[in-house]
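Annotators were shown the component list below and the corresponding predicted structure, then asked to write short factual statements about the assembly.
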Amino acid sequence: MKPFSRVTGVAAVLERADVDTDQIMPKQFLKRIERTGFGEFLFFDWAKDPDFELNRPECRSARVLLAGRNFGCGSSREHAPWGLQDAGYDVVVAPSFGDIFRQNCIKIGLVPIVLPAAQVKRLYQFGGRELTIDLETQTIEDPSGEVTPFPFDAFERHRLLNGLDDIGLTLEHEAAIDEYEQRRGLARV
Amino acid sequence: MPRSLFEKIWEAHVIREAEGEPTLLYVDLHLVHEVTSAQAFDGLRLAGRAVRRPDLTVATMDHNVPTLPGPIEDPLARAQLDALSRNCEEFGVPLYATGSGREGIVHVIGPELGLTQPGKTVVCGDSHTSTHGAFGAFALGVGTSEVEHVLATQTLPLKRPKTALVRFEGTLPSGLTPKDVALGMIGQLGVAGGVGHVLEYAGEAIESFSMEGRMTLCNMSIEAGARAGMVAPDETTFAYLEGREFAPSGAAWERALEEWHSLASDEGARYDREIVVDVEALEPQVTWGTNPGMVAPVGALVPDPADYPDPDERAAVERALAYMALEPGTPIEEIRIDRVFIGSCTNSRIEDLRAAAAVAAGKQVAPGVTALVVPGSAAIKRLAEEEGLHRVFLEAGFEWRQAGCSMCLGMNPDVLQPGERCASTSNRNFEGRQGRLGRTHLVSPAMAAAAAIAGHFVDVRELEAVSA
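Structure shown to annotators:
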């Protein structure tokens, strides 16, 4: 995983509640067996509507998605965050996330930031303009000069800042896994 | 200190705890299917890693498989299924492939084979893994990175979720099914109501549910946003498991029973939240919108966005009604349907098929309606055929298919056409879920069969009074 510390990039606004992962990455693209190349299918059905929010020209280069509450609910498909990342997004800011989606984001280094709804709504006004998201200082700086702090789990932050691989981290404790299996009588025969 | 069912399972699976870090939890059972595993196996290959415990891993084919006999025509689906076969062979993972006679929807065959057991931790790269909580297991859906993690280490780093006790008060009214209870609960909680929580379902109504009913309820936990759902194991659970292929037998069964008896939450166990659902106030449920929380009793009207004070919610309801092509104030019973789907990991088990067949027996599917019945596994298909259920369906004009996920998610040839409206026993009525621009209404198997006969939604309790 690539380390992430800070990004300055255009914000795109998707002000809708309960956006499910079926919308983010529709089913027909789940048959691919690769991990990359999902960006062009992002919000595939919604994107057919010329008025779809993310079709605005300024959203083309967006790196920050400002979303609505319960973003990424539904299916566990990691193809949804893969698509967002492949389309250029580094950060998603929302009042809340679906649990599995949030977890998937963390695993692949797409930074999910939770802020109170009123603060996310305030940021919507900066759609099409640049925000600076700094994970080191846990702040969002907007074009008005205001700096909004955000909470972030310390361990997850450490993982993202250093681009640490979860499996590698766990395998450092392989002896503890062996011991657990012994204790439970689950040792391999 | 009294402990809850969840706490007992969690604590029994902790490998390592460290301040400020996620807990490293042991995984007892890892279920695998074709859609979310290919990239995980690739990751193992790239890193030169093996599957740590192929003996605790089981794979099947479900999402992509056609439900009509014959070869798979979609080359992408074929490639994904071939990749699963190759991966299982290379990494030594047992695979119940299509045609093996033991295949089926992953959340149907796990319990059916006796793999899912009380007290276990179960994961699968599928959000409906919550189904297995019906056995008093801690079962949760994960993404592909986590699938790879579990394959490589048989563990999952996890922050301890919060707990909620959902107390279902009252006895289940006659004609009401576990699906109605699940939808009614989600209507009350909302689709984000359970986020971050493991829900433990309790109460007389839940105890009266069969294992099939408990699986339906736990399956829908994720639709309330919950991490998992669970029901304390009891005699119903043990009776279901006894004699199944991978359930313990002989002396091991006796030891297991003793252990399983101790799993139920202790008197005075604490939860982060308590939620009460009044079962007796519930009626058969029908969703009208584009998420499972947009649901109403069958006797109600399609809601009016103007009645929602919260602007976000109002906008969501407006969008949902536009997508569903529904006018506010329309009686739900006047909504006409084109298709019926009875199946999915929510409602494709033998009891579901029996309930639908009981409604369909001696009647005819309404003109213009196509109705599909898809058993959840090859074993259920065989059992239903032994019972003659397939004949009941066929004579009533339903199609009788082979096991698979089918029209729940439109990854195989069973899809809605744009604009088609479907009464479906599946779990998600998201936009395009069953096919692009398709319109899904979630209901119970009995309600789906009743809608097939009537051509529109109807209270199954009053079906006899309706002319077919």
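Statements collected:
1. The mean pLDDT of chain B is 97.
2. Chain B has 15 helices and 19 strands.
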